């Protein structure tokens, strides 16, 4: 992203900040200005395709993915078809997720209780992090 210039202050330090009206939105880290570049339309950046499919595999519903990533559930369904993603039957794990900034993420991990009895992954999401956690249902 180093070549992207903020239209307001010309800083080249911008991070992805969701998709608005099918356009990739960026946020300037220097002045916090939000701007969009180009029309992603049919070709939503691979970054979001992979994030969406990761979430799908983790059992997050299409509607939730739409809410989290700002990508229409129809697009996500199309990618699932296109890449022939199949998820295994899963009745014992239930994924929950949190959106955290870096400081919150560090705090979360510093409490040992949060890391017990569950598996989790952290994935970057724009300028924040998404933590997906699986807790096993007791039968
Ligand atoms: Zn700026």
Average predicted local confidence, pLDDT:
81
- Counting DSSP E segments of at least 2 residues, the number of strands comes to 6
Report the end-to-end length measured between terminal Cα atoms: 47 Å
In which order are the strands of the major sheet placed?
A: 1-2-3
Going by helix content, strand content and strand pairing, the class is alpha+beta
Describe the biggest sheet? 3 strands, antiparallel
What compounds are bound to the protein?
Answer: zinc ion
Number of helices: 4
- Number of structural domains: 3
Portion in helices: 25-40%
Radius of gyration: 17 Å
Low-pLDDT segments, ≥5 res: none
Order of secondary-structure elements: EEEHHHEHEE
Shape: flat
Strand content: 25-35%
Spell out the blueprint of helices and strands.
Blueprint: E1 14-20, E2 23-28, E3 34-37, H1 46-57, H2 62-69, H3 73-82, E4 93-100, H4 102-110, E5 118-125, E6 128-136
Bound molecules: zinc ion.
Describe this structure in words.
The protein is α+β, with helices and mostly antiparallel strands and 139 residues long. The chain contains four helices and six strands, in the order βββαααβαββ. The chain has helices at 46-57, 62-69, 73-82, 102-110; strands spanning 14-20, 23-28, 34-37, 93-100, 118-125, 128-136. A three-stranded antiparallel beta sheet has the order 1-2-3, with no helix packed on it. A three-stranded antiparallel beta sheet has the order 4-6-5. Strand 5 (118-125) and strand 6 form a beta hairpin. The radius of gyration is 17 Å and the shape is flat. 17% of the residues are buried. The structure holds zinc ion. Zinc ion binds next to loops.
